[in-house]
Structures are given as C-alpha cells and as structure tokens.
Design a protein that fits this description.
Layout: E1 2-7, E2 16-22, E3 29-39, H1 41-48, E4 63-71, E5 83-86, H2 96-100, H3 110-115, E6 125-127, E7 130-132, E8 144-148, E9 152-155, H4 161-164, H5 170-182, E10 190-193, H6 197-208, E11 214-217, H7 224-230, E12 234-236, H8 246-254, E13 260-263, H9 268-276, E14 284-287, H10 302-305, E15 309-312, H11 320-332, E16 342-347, H12 351-359, E17 365-369
Parallel strand pairs: 10-11, 10-13, 11-12, 13-14, 14-15, 16-17
Antiparallel strand pairs: 1-2, 2-6, 3-4, 3-8, 3-17, 4-5, 5-9, 6-7
The structure holds nicotinamide-adenine-dinucleotide (NAD), lauric acid (DAO) and zinc ion (2 copies).
One zinc ion (ZN) binds near residues 40, 42, 62 and 169.
EC number: 1.1.1.284
Cofactor: Zn(2+)
GO biological process, one term: formaldehyde catabolic process
Length: about 375
Amino acid sequence: MKSRAAVAWEAGKPLSIEEIDVQGPKAGEVLVRIVATGVCHTDLFTLSGADPEGAFPVILGHEGGGIVEEVGEGVTSLKPGDHVIPLYTPECGECAFCRSGKTNLCQKIRVTQGQGVMPDGTSRFSMGGKQLLHYMGTSTFSEYTVLPEISLAKINKDAPLDKVCLLGCGVTTGIGAVLNTAKVEPGASVAVFGMGGIGLSVVQGAVMAKAGRIICVDTNPAKFEMAKMLGATDFVNPKDYPDTPIQQVIVELTGGGVDYSFECIGNVDVMRAALECCHKGWGESIIIGVAGAGQEIRTRPFQLVTGRVWRGSAFGGVKGRTELPGYVDRYMGGEIKIDPMITYTMGLDDINRAFDLMHEGKAIRSVIIF
Ligand code: NAD
Ligand code: DAO
Ligand code: ZN
Ligand code: ZN
C-alpha cells in the first residue's frame, strides 16, 4: 500500500515528505495507521548523525498513537480497530530479561531492531524499489507502519491519540524514572537537570511521588514557568553562577545535597554535576539523557565510595504491554498531565518546523497529526 511519510534520506538533512510503499504485515506483525506522533529529542539526535546506531535512509519517529489496520498470521492479542501505542522497548514476556523481574529491556528482537529491520531481517518500507529502514522498531513518521505484535500496547479506545502518543516516550520515561528506577520516597529532595519533555515529566513523577523539594536546573529560564506549574519548587540557571560549579550551588542550597537527581539532557559534564550534587552516603543519580557517540562519563571514584549511586533508566523502566495501558488510564483520570506539554501541533508537511522549534529550544513537544 501507499503511505505518506517523512523520510530521512541522510544525516544532517531535513526530512522529505514522500509517498512510500508499505508491505502488509507478515506472521507475528501488525499494520498500524498512525493518527499522531510526537517529535522527541532522540529523533533529532539520530537525524543529526550523532547516534552510533543511526542508519539511513530511514523513517524516524517513536512517540506515536495509532489504530490497528490489519494483523499478520498468528497475531492473537490485537485485532483491527484496536487503539495502540508503539513500543521501542518491546515486551515478549518470554525472554530471560522479561522473566527476570529486574528490567524492562526485552531482548527478543533487539538485534534486528537495532539494524533497522523487522525480526525476519527485512524491511516493510520502500520507495521506487529502494529499501527504507525502520527506526527503533516503531517508525511513527509514516501514516502506515508495521510493528511486531510484542511492540504494541493496547490502550483504552476513549483516550485521545493526539495526546497519549506522548506516553510512547517522553512522559512515561520521566515519570517511570522517578517511580520505577529511583523509587523516590515522600519528602525526598530531587534535582532535575534539563526541562525538556523528559525533565518536565520527571517533575510530574516527583510530584506524584510526593517529593519535598523539586529543584529544576536549566540554562533556558523560559522553561521554568511550566516546571513551576507542574509543581517544582526551586529554579536554578547555571548561567547565574559563572564562577561556581552547579553541583556546589545545589549542595549549598540543600545543606548537603539532594536525595535523588536526574540528568535529562545527554551532556556528560552535566551527568557528573548531577552525581556530585547528590547527598553523601545515600544520594542517587539517574541518567536518562543519551550522550553522543563515543562520549564517556567521569567522576572521582571516591564519590561512589562515599555512598553516591549512579543508575540509568530506559523508557522509565516501564514494561510497555503490561504497564502502559495503566499510564493511559491515569491520564484519563487526570493524574498524569500531557496537554500542557504539547506546545505545537502541525501536519506532517510541517514536520521540519517541529525539528527547528526543538533546536531553538522553543518547543517542549510538537505533535504531528496525520
Ligand atoms: P530537550 O532538548 O527537549 O530538553 C533538554 C533541555 O536541557 C532543554 O530545556 C535545554 O535548555 C536544557 N539544557 C541543555 N543544556 C543544558 C545545560 N548544560 N545545563 C542545563 N540545562 C541544559 O530534550 P528531551 O526531549 O527532554 O530529551 C532529553 C534527553 O533524554 C535527550 O538526550 C534524549 O535523547 C533523552 N531520552 C532518553 C530516554 C530514555 O529512555 N533514557 C527517552 C527519551 C529521551
Ligand atoms: O536493550 O540494549 C537494549 C537497548 C534498549 C533501548 C533503550 C533506549 C533508551 C534510550 C533511547 C532513547 C529513546 C527515545
Ligand atoms: Zn523519545
Ligand atoms: Zn522479552
């Protein structure tokens, strides 16, 4: 079938709106009509060429909401008409990782997903006979996309897909990092570095966890208004302290450091500051940001010897098929806020504007409506 899609032909170039060919679903696969998709910093990162796994030409996009159009042979858990959120972290329920009870990083299709193809090693996308790659197993910048059954969470049909699409990455990643990875306790102090879609969702998670002090750090003070509206208590712009390392500013502000910090930028120097602003003896720092290819983190080992802990979090530690429907219900019940995060809505033809707005620091999230 034909599908309108934004194609990334090569790194560093704008996306091209094209009419592509999409092959129907094979066994264990599902054809989905994407209704809406968010544009996340990770799409920008891959398009820039900094992503070590980035391969081209590719259909980017991983923050979608859609409706099942057709299912392949053997698919039992989904049927045409079901509303779904694509999962870049699938959940097979059978692999050692899924069964461990310790991680959400299902490995069942990890190798082929990383190569930009379906589990049988081939792509469902092409144009003029030339193969186009899948991205993160989701490729939501195409009106029609094909995913493995294990990469789809079935959700409440009443939920607006142009809002809950953000649960496919940003909002869930931030909230889950607080509730699942850090397990922030009531009254705990929290520092959040970077007030994009991820950092603001960490703020939401910290409010849900009943954290005491929620300190936001961003070099763009325009981001603080939304953080305050979501319940953050303190706001720090590193540019206001040109002579003091930001970790020292936070240690002094809190009388010893925070209980938990979250790095939501992808900057290895900020990752160090986020660890070192944690309280001696127990402070934990969670890395969410994705750093560029080849970058490394540094600190003095004594920071860890004296009780600070470094952790990482992917998709907020959330198991998509079992837990994401509950996130959708919490949005429907008013507990999770998504609408204020959507700063721009536009059609597919304007998708490059969404990338420009993110570059310029003007968008929290742009949502593309097909
Ligand atoms: P974003 O670009 O919207 O937000 C980043 C924020 O950081 C901006 O507000 C910017 O002003 C601020 N910032 C930049 N440099 C700074 C500095 N030196 N000090 C303080 N603030 C600074 O990005 P996003 O969409 O929120 O994504 C954030 C990161 O999370 C990215 O690296 C993205 O790839 C990553 N990510 C990780 C996961 C995961 O599962 N681990 C999921 C999604 C996104
Ligand atoms: O299992 O080895 C693996 C990789 C899982 C992918 C997790 C990706 C999380 C960070 C990427 C940002 C997503 C938008
Ligand atoms: Zn994302
Ligand atoms: Zn698995």
